[in-house]
Recover the amino acids of this structure.
């Protein structure tokens, strides 16, 4: 096996191990957020990017900057291309975070006002 091919294979194996370890962590944590991440096969780097997105939106909402669900959903689809066009996934994700007292304003601002009158 050539050096470049071997390095590529090692990187693939490291990525696989990280994915499996992350899934194991999700199983042991077993919060509703973890169950959603597990169910949809979200990777650690995708989760980190989701947290950053949710935090950014939370800060924007607190600072009374304009936000909308369309832009949020497009950002989610960019992070998780497998869910592109799945409006329900983006809403479900924000709801689960809200239920776990994390970035609560995101769900309330983007979805709850029109759907749930919270």
């Amino acid at each position: 096996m050539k050096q470049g091919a071997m390095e590529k294979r090692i990187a693939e194996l490291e990525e696989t191990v990280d994915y499996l370890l992350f899934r194991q962590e999700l199983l042991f944590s077993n919060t509703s957020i973890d169950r959603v991440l597990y169910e949809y096969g979200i990777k650690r780097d995708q989760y980190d990017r989701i947290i950053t997105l949710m935090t950014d939106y939370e800060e924007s909402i607190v600072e009374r900057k304009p936000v909308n669900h369309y832009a949020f959903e497009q950002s989610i689809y960019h992070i998780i291309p497998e869910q592109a066009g799945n409006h329900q996934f983006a809403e479900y994700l924000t709801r689960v975070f809200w239920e776990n007292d994390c970035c609560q304003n995101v769900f309330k601002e983007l979805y709850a006002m029109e759907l749930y009158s919270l």
